[in-house]
Amino acid sequence: xxxxxxxxxxxxxxxxxxxxxxxxxxxxxxxxxxxxxxxxxxxxxxxxxxxxxxxxxxxxxxxxxxxxxxxxxxxxxxxxxxxxxxxxxxxxxxxxxxxxxxxxxxxxxxxxxxxxxxxxxxxxxxxxxxxxxxxxxxxxxxxxxxxxxx
Length: 150
Fold this sequence. Notes:
2 domains; 7 helices
């Protein structure tokens, strides 16, 4: 079952349960899928990695908004963003832990022979492909910088 079918099934359940937070998050996913499909052309299907990127983008947008709302003491809006993040993250692959991420990136650094921050692009290219669905780019980048700075 593809992402769109899963979202539609969850959307029906959320409607029956009158779950407003769930409806907001699921409708955001559905809208993003429709936009992505129409951008690819008539009747375009999204690949699994495209779906994952789409979901990560939605989570990143909400996290950015959450930071802004928290800084401005808008707890009502911050709470809505947190609820939507939780809904969207249910559809993402399991996120990798910090230690696992460091280990995986250390292996990639050893494979590529990178030794300085100047080699960051080489490492990031491989790390983004291998770990793309399991961690966001900002986290991967931070760990790569940290390990190459040593």
